Amino acid sequence: MESTYTVTGMTCGHCVGHITEEMKTVDGVTDVRITLEDGVMVVTSDAPLDFATVEEAVSEAGDYQVTAA
Question: In whole angstroms, how large is the CA radius of gyration of the chain?
Fold first, then answer.
């Protein structure tokens, strides 16, 4: 299943990399695609993700904010 989010606070490819790495540690996540220019993050997972879990992973990556798209 795919879930789409908007991430703010990213400024470069390193930001994208950090968030991608953290999201891939979430149980059930199989793929993460982030577009730096518009902040769109598409997460593919085996089951629906709890938004609080997504928020936690994104905040672990750095000073970023995530909202459900």
Answer: 10
Residue 69 has pLDDT above 90, yes or no: no
What's the rounded Cα separation, in Å, for the pair 66 and 61? 12
Q: Are strands 29-35 and 65-68 parallel, antiparallel or unpaired?
A: unpaired
Provide the CA 57 distance to its chain's centre, in angstroms: 7
Between the alpha carbon of residue 8 and those of residues 1, 28, 48, 66, the distances in Å are 23, 24, 22, 6
Q: How many CB atoms lie within 10 A of CB 11?
A: 9
What's the pLDDT score for residue 32? 98
- The DSSP-derived string for 3-20 is EEEEEES--SHHHHHHHH
Starting at the edge strand found earlier in the chain, the sheet holding 29-35 runs 29-35, 40-45, 2-8, 65-68
